[in-house]
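User: Round two. Same drill as before: sequence, then structure, for each protein.

Assistant: Same drill it is. First protein:
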Amino acid sequence: MEHYIIYILPLFGILSLLFTYVKSNWISKQDPGTEKMVRISGYIAEGAMAFLRAEYKVLAIFVTLVAILLAVTANMKEDSHPLVAVSFILGAFSSALAGYIGMKAATKANVRTTHAARKSIGAALNIAFTGGTVMGLGVVGLGVLGLGMLLALYSQMWLTPDVFSDKALLATATSKVITVITGFSFGASSIALFARVGGGIYTKAADVGADLVGKVEAGIPEDHPLNPATIADNVGDNVGDVAGMGADLFESYVGAIVGTMVLGAAFIPISQGFQSILMVWVQYCCHYQLQLLEL
């Protein structure tokens, strides 16, 4: 029975991403406000996308080099496998995608929340909360989908029926599955580090530039849209506090799941180690279903 549960797990991730898509479309249909509001928000969204493209190009080189290093070193260990590089790349990609999804939702929700606040606080709160929902469910969906797919793939490769009859083979196979899956969490962490710090440095530099040049030298009021550094400051807020935070949350979420799997396999008897891993997933998926019902 437990073997069939493995293949059901990725479906929860797909369900979450579908819900994210629906909520994102709802935000897009809301009124963005006046022509001036649309123009300024367009500048911010364009700048945020340009920053992410530049950042992800550099991170792609870093991820490729580390993946090659992981594949080479893993080939020298009995309890690992070169496929850990695939897990690492998939984790890095999912982390970057989680930040991208959150940033796209934020740049659309920001101006619509502002315009809705001119009518009522309730309408503004609804749009703002929905924008945050897109980020949260995107993180959960990508985490469950990525880890669920890897668990199903690696279990089919190494946790074959004949392995369960031998405790030594079962221990080795379980250790290999968890070790290779850990690469997914490692990849997510690597992207979160650069995305969070890089965006933070950018927004602080833009904020200082806006204050020094705009207010002191040019005499432009603070946060005035005619000051280019003010636009850059808002771009930094999106790429650091939204895209960076999305990657950071994804890393924390995935790390919590993988860490619980490691503890379950380490402290529960070998004969029940695989069942303990599935128990972790069942608990996470049940909690996730309750979250969807609340929304």
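Second protein:
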Amino acid sequence: MIRATMIFSAGRSPDILIVDDDPRLRDLLRRFLSQHGFSVVVAEDALAMNRVMRHQRFDLMVLDLMMPGEDGLQVISRLRSSQSDLPIIVLTARGDESDRITGLEAGADDYLPKPFNPRELFARIQCVLRRSRLNEMPGAPSNETQRFRFGSFELDLSTRSLRKDGVSVPLTTSDFATLKALARHAREPLSRQRLMQLSRGRDYESSDRSLDVQISRLRKLIEDDPHNPRYLQTVWGVGYVLIPDAEYDRQGSQHPAYDLHMTGSP
């Protein structure tokens, strides 16, 4: 059996927080994920979640969107507004696409519709943790000094940070992983399949809207007019491409508006 400890180089068990008002589901997921090597804490609502998070740090949260009191969307918005980059997988009602899209737009890293097989949740947790924790995985900072400038923005791949006119712009793990993939392949149109592999570590499925929602979210962060993007453009029939302000000249020298320092291989 593949255990969760395999994805952490230090060998410790990742700490997972499950927030769901369904006691049977909480118990099922606690037992299943514990058996697969995770250290699991459960909470029945946002108030219980707040109490737990005051005393313990977690590597990932599994969060139900439909809860009494403060719902899942409000929890995500509150965490992201406080600049928390805690990876979040949301659980949604089957077929409720609007909730899934809204959750991703709010800053969730992945979603899973109910009912689901716990093995799929396990696989998605592994995937999100890989890109947020492991060295040089999609959401991890670069080992080398790598800065990418476009317009008034500077993306620093080595510190996992984005700044606009010197002011920090909060990024989720998924935000950074997607920008990192696009920046390392600037001017190169990336298919949805390729971009999904680079930024999420998994294959793209035609029914999966998470990547398109992620692009929409990033456009709201970096574009003056998200409906008429200047930097993050759609290549019809292919996928997406990140376009900086200036072109390379034919000799390969860079104009000042496009400054990409990369000492390591992409």
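The CA atoms of residues 35 and 158 lie 35 Å apart.

User: Perfect.
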